[in-house]
Design a protein that fits this description.
homodimer; 28% helix; BirA Bifunctional Protein, domain 2; 2 domains; 6 helices
Chain lengths: 265, 265
């Protein structure tokens, strides 16, 4: 029997991770749980007691992981489920840019660790061969002009099994790559990448973020369909503006899309 | 002894208020307290149990009222302290516009009720003769692309005494008007006015909000100084953009100001 170099039950050695991490802010403090309801919910508790910027909550299993619109996010053993705590000195409209910086970091980490090209699906998913491999949930607490804190929940199907009913729309890195992948390598790579992009964001280098983000999409100049609140609109994807909104060329002219579910045509 | 038409200890008759209120959404449900820690904090609790949009929390006394940057807001008997709960189907960058719509509503209510001209001081105060008479604290809970809920805390010095140490910078309506003012009349007027402006906001009639807002400032084309995080910038106030940011003409060119404390020069 072939010896597995990276076992499916690979365990988190937090001390080793923090020691090897090359980052300025992100991941200097990591809270690890074998099982938790939701890493974002625990992050919210930590913030109330006050915790440093860049603090991470990571768990092997989430029993009540959440996605966009309060959809349940299935988070069994073998996947990577964690949250990042930030106190960005930025206005509320930067929320989407934070999500974009995280998306880039996850896509690059997948590339560095597995060689696979994950594509960013606006606003907050990553796909491999058109199936969802990762989702990002950014939660903001803000006044009208300033974010007080942001919690970014990141879920990645690494080695975990995909539920039968999700198999047509979701995949895992293991399944697409035909071998076990190190959750820890991806984890470290995301933290280091995001440390870099978050710094760019704080220095208002939005063009750099936007350019990198666009390099990870595959819809530039392609026709897409956006659905929100039963309204459906079709158009050619022209790019994103400084707030992370989609710019679509439609039969009604150029339209800005703030949120919605997109479908490739 | 002269008979007082409006007594200082005027009491809230919530049943009567809701019966007479001409609004579509705002104030259909009102929670009243003689004393509470903070109406915004109680509003947050109500949201967790779920409450309708437009629900109000009002109190005679707040023991821990808060202003911007967690500054304490002195909230003794005689003033008007309340919060409005909203679930706006708007992106996080609309937070400032909500604050603007509330500012207009408060300024108009003061005008209708007392005849006095309150001026809006960006971002969230109202002044009479350059002294603060009201403050607005908008708190947002959002994802990166959508506000989940907004709680707007409104504090107005109506008939309450102003602390000695605040007398050079703060005032009450009673003091400026030389007679008691009905808290309830102002309260009703704010709710009805905001019902109107919130509807404009939801219908994306930003130009109307901006125009009305500008009519209540007295700094258009005047020189002001903005301080934020020890950075100071001077310039001529040119207006506000669609996100509620200040546009200043400075020696470095046109500059957009997102937050800060402004001073008239």
């Amino acid at each position: 029997m072939e010896k597995k170099l990276i076992p499916e039950n690979e365990l988190f050695d937090i001390e080793k991770i923090t020691k090897n991490l090359r980052s300025k802010i992100i991941g200097k403090k990591i809270h690890y749980f074998k099982k938790i309801s939701s890493t974002n919910s625990y992050a919210k508790k930590l913030i109330k007691e006050f915790t440093d910027e860049g603090t991470i909550v990571v768990a092997d299993v989430q029993t009540q992981g959440r996605g966009r619109k309060n959809r349940l996010w299935h988070s069994p053993f073998g996947g990577l489920w964690f949250s990042i705590i930030l106190y960005p000195d930025l206005p509320p409209e930067s929320g989407m840019l934070i999500t974009m910086a995280v998306s880039i970091s996850v896509a690059q980490a997948i590339k560095e660790t597995t060689g696979m090209n994950a594509k960013i699906k606006w606003p907050n998913d990553l796909l491999i061969r058109n199936k969802k491999v990762s989702g990002i949930l950014t939660e903001l607490d803000a006044s009208s002009y300033k974010i007080n804190y942001a919690i970014i929940g990141i879920g990645i199907n690494v080695n975990n099994k995909i539920n039968d009913e999700l198999k047509t729309i979701a995949c895992s890195l293991k399944q697409e790559n035909n071998k076990d992948i190190s959750r820890i390598k991806i984890f470290i790579s995301i933290l280091e990448n995001f440390d870099f992009y978050y710094d760019k964001l704080k220095n208002k280098d939005l063009d750099f973020i936007k350019k990198t983000w666009l390099s990870f999409t595959n819809i530039l100049n392609k026709k897409i369909q956006v659905t929100e609140n039963k309204k459906v609109i079709e158009g050619v994807f022209l790019g994103i503006n400084d707030l992370g909104h989609l710019i679509l060329d439609t039969k009604f002219g150029e339209i800005k899309i703030i949120t919605g579910d997109i479908k490739y045509l």
